[in-house]
Amino acid sequence: MHEKLKFLATLCGNPAQGVLMRLNTVRLEMLSLLDGLGTMRAVAAALHMSPSAVSAQLAVLEAETHTELLRRTGRRVQLTAAGQVLARHARIILDQIKAAEADLQGLSGQPTGPVRLAAFSSAIRAVVIPLAARLREAHPRIDLEVAELDPQASHPALRRGDYDIIVTADFIDGSLPLHPDVHTIPLLTDAIVLVAPQSPAASDVPADLADFAEAAWSIDMPGTYLSNLVTSTCRQAGFEPIVAGRFASYELLLAHVEAGLSVSLLPELAVDRRYRVAARPLRRPLTRQVYAAVRSRSTLTAASQIVLDELRALSTTFAHDRVPIG
């Protein structure tokens, strides 16, 4: 604790020396964005400023704190250890300001204000859209903004402050370690299933993937969660999938399977019952955990807390009511 106080004293100046500085929230936001986005150019685009203006403001922040926050190598910049610590404090400070503003707006007794939520596509259809409909009826002064975001992108977006809440899923291979700045809230368990064309011979017996080594496969775009899932799971079963199609939407993928052109692996949430496909559990079961996440050291607004509570309630209802596959 003593070392932390010494560090904060370094950031803000030493009052005994008459050098106490007040940190500027605009410049703190720039530092936080730089930590999340990685380049001056990206920060400038996000704030509709020029890169040189952003650089100048961050230089002022370094002067205010009497601390080297950035390490410059040619055109590249990296946050120093002190810069990373201040960026984490910046996110907490900015969230606290947002919470204070929301509390002032909500003095009428009804939670109010914007809440930004990002989720992957099948979670949006299953729980987020019903959540938005429920909020419109029960809490009309909460403005919920929903965005579709792949699980691989959601954690960085949350940490840099693009969203207040994310709904995402873990990576079955454990390749997505949690950051200490992120607090997770479990929502439901989602099984991975084999999706194949419907036929009179279709079976609901658990599928052995080795039986589909010669089949054509449809998967997501390279580098995405689903693409990595299909490739790694097929390799564990002893074969490289023969890719017949790559689709960025589950709807197109399911239509491709429905037409008898391919098979695929999908999380159960993603299997839209409107498509005539057969979904089978796997002989070696795979599941993923779907969860919400917020910034761990930040204060939620009253509106964000209500959104989170309703999200948990809806997820529990959905998990209880849905008919299992197989």
**CATH topology category name of the largest domain:** D-Maltodextrin-Binding Protein, domain 2
Query: For the residues shown, what is the average pLDDT?
Result: 84
Q: How much of the residues is beta strand, in percent?
A: 15-25%
- Report the uncertain regions: 1-20
User: Under the CATH scheme, which class of the largest domain?
Assistant: Alpha Beta
Order of helices and strands: HHHHEEHEHEHEEEHEHEEEH
Q: Work out the helicity level.
A: 40-55%
As a whole number of angstroms, the C-alpha radius of gyration is: 24 Å
Oligomer: single chain
Number of strands: 11
| Number of helical stretches of at least 4 residues | 10
* CATH architectural category of the largest domain: 3-Layer(aba) Sandwich
The CATH homology group name of the largest domain? Periplasmic binding protein-like II
Shape: globular
Structural class: alpha/beta
Distance between the termini: 55 Å
